[in-house]
Amino acid sequence: TPRACHRIRRSNPPIMKSAVASAAGVNARAVAEHALALILAVARRLPEARDNQHKKTWRGMIGDLAQREDELGGKTVLIVDSDDAIRERLAAVLKHDYRVLKTASGESALSIMSKEDVDILLIDVRLPGIGGFELLKIVKENYGQVEAIVTAAGRELDTAIEAMRLGAYHFISKDFELENVRSLVAGAAERQDLSRDVLRLRS
């Protein structure tokens, strides 16, 4: 948060100058990411304050910075579709706002998810091997915080209903408009953030 950054900047001015200077020549988003990473690293290494109120303040500041770092770092979207053209089209739409991974099968998607922190899935219903619905079911059982958007060649109502029943955020046909895809992925990301906020408040 601005207040947290101001507190750290005031007590550690060289850190802020170093962060901005070392990120010179790149865009503002990269500068912000680099600066927050340095600030967060310093904040986590600061000795515990003896005063309980100060301890709470620092914990809150570090939590806010970590959350903001996640937001700036962006989310990872995994596109699972056996159609090369569809995969590339979806990736082209999303790559400027998200880290995008691509694969052609459900088996490969599960392998990727075991190694990578995936936030949002775009799943084709008709996949070779593990089908789209089966993949969605496995993901929801094992990666509960991952949001999924199901894609299909047609606009069958039964397909959309089944996707929602299995926990998909939304269903979209493959004759999609680019802005619709951006909007749906942004909505899935927002719902995921809200769910994580609720879990943090409960913990």
Set down the secondary structure blueprint:
Elements: H1 2-11, H2 13-22, H3 28-45, H4 52-73, E1 76-80, H5 84-94, E2 99-103, H6 106-113, E3 120-124, H7 132-142, E4 147-152, H8 157-165, E5 170-173, H9 178-202
Parallel strand pairs: 1-2, 1-3, 3-4, 4-5
Helix pairs in contact: 1-2, 2-3, 3-4
Cα-based radius of gyration, to the nearest Å: 20 Å
Low-pLDDT stretches: 1-31
Order of helices and strands: HHHHEHEHEHEHEH
Q: Structural class from helices and strands?
A: alpha/beta
Q: What's the total count of β strands?
A: 5
In the sheet with the most strands, the strands line up as 2-1-3-4-5
Main sheet?
5 strands, parallel
How many angstroms separate the termini? 21 Å
Shape: globular
Content of β-strand:
5-15%
Percent helix? 55-70%
What is the arithmetic mean of pLDDT? Answer: 77
The tally of helices reads 9
Explain what the structure shows.
The chain is α/β, with parallel strands linked by helices and 203 residues long. It contains 9 helices and 5 strands; from the N terminus they run ααααβαβαβαβαβα. It has a 5-stranded parallel beta sheet, with helices on both faces. Helix 1 crosses helix 2 (13-22), helix 2 packs antiparallel against helix 3 and helix 3 runs antiparallel to helix 4.
